[in-house]
Amino acid sequence: MTGKTPEQNKVITMAPMDATHTEYAELVARASVANHGTIVVPEWLEDKKPDKALTTRRSGRAKNGLKRFPFVGFISVAVLLFLYIPMLIVVAYSFNGGRQALLWQGFSLRWYASVFHDPSIIAATRTSLIVAVAATALATILSLGYVLALDHMSRFGSKLASGLINASMMIPEIVLGVATMAFIRMIGMAPGYLPLILAHTTFCIPFVEMPIRARLQTLDRSCFEAAQDLGASQLTTVTKITLPLLTPGIVSGALMGFVVSMDDYMISNFLTTAGTTTLPIYIFSLIRKGVNPSVNVVATLLLLLAIVVTVISSLLTNRKDK
Questions:
Q1: How far is residue 216's CA from residue 226's CA, in Å, rounded to a whole number?
Q2: Residues of CATH 1.10.3720.10 domain(s) within the chain?
Q3: Which pLDDT tens digit goes with each residue over 93-117?
Q4: What mean pLDDT do residues 268-275 have?
Q5: Stated pTM of the model
Q6: How far apart are alpha carbons 200 and 269 in whole angstroms?
Q7: What's the rounded Cα separation, in Å, for the pair 233 and 279?
Q8: Where is the ABC transmembrane type-1 domain (predicted)?
Q9: Residue 35 to residue 104: CA distance in whole angstroms
């Protein structure tokens, strides 16, 4: 550009020498408007680009702020060790050949064989799997419907519904257990599989809903608009476009709900009967009698389940990002 219009001269006089990225972008936009809508960067505005040193000043301050606390790295490592060393100890002692849970007497797989042949542990595991699978399926269906309905609500209604769902995660489990037991007795339902499944479904919904809603928020809405413009019905749009795109979030949420249900003790403690003892309830009953080496094996298997679920969720997340 060789000449300057009065609008351009006005922009020049307003351009500060230490303009930030945001100010620079505004100047470019205003100059483009002055140039009849053509998106160009005039030569007279090139000198207004913020200095690289200015753009990195904030990140430099953050780094200098961290340097003022030299023990941050040590504290981080200490916290990680505090979290994972007990788990590693449990895994190591699950291969202990002795009869005492915390006294190493040689490597052995005897307690793994004992767990896999213990009818009580097998029955408790079967009960936990039945409850977890049923609760996960119901929670996934309800969470998916909730997320799709939430997407069509007003802003106020959406925030209100989200607050009500998320509030259940902050309520102590013992309160949920007592409330569920009181409600079941009030309606005349006997403790058993059905109350367990319904209670676990209610407890798992917030954990299943979060990944699904997060996935929906990242989708490009132009896909849905294009489908409707081409004459697709609402049902076709949901089944052919929305659900396939939400699959990573649905699977991640279902896996999270499954692990939460398998690990729950407090709510199950109020609703189990002699024939519906879950695995966490059985483990706690073993601990009351004394720490049995079988507890280390069961804890290791549950930890392995959590690791597998975490890996699958991570793979789905990476696939989603790609």
A1: 17
A2: 116-321
A3: 888 877 776 777 878 888 888 888 8
A4: 83
A5: 0.69
A6: 12
A7: 46
A8: 125-313
A9: 81
Q: 38 near 14, Cβ under 8 Å?
A: no
Q: Which residues pair with 96 in a beta bridge?
A: 107
Confidence of residue 129 (pLDDT cuts 50, 70, 90): very high
Compute the distance between CA of residue 194 and CA of residue 138 in angstroms, rounded to an integer.
12
C-alpha–C-alpha distance, residues 143 and 211, integer Å: 10
Residue 105: φ, ψ to 5°: -135, 25
Instruction: Tell me which DSSP letter residue 107 carries.
Output: B
DSSP 219: S
Domain spanning 116-321 has what CATH number? 1.10.3720.10
Confidence of residue 69 (pLDDT cuts 50, 70, 90): low
Tokens representing residue 217 in the block: 């928020």
The long-range contacts involving 50-59, CB below 8 angstroms and separated by at least 24 positions, are 50/18, 50/19, 50/20, 50/21, 50/23, 50/24, 51/18, 54/18, 54/20, 55/20, 55/21
Amino acid at 150: L
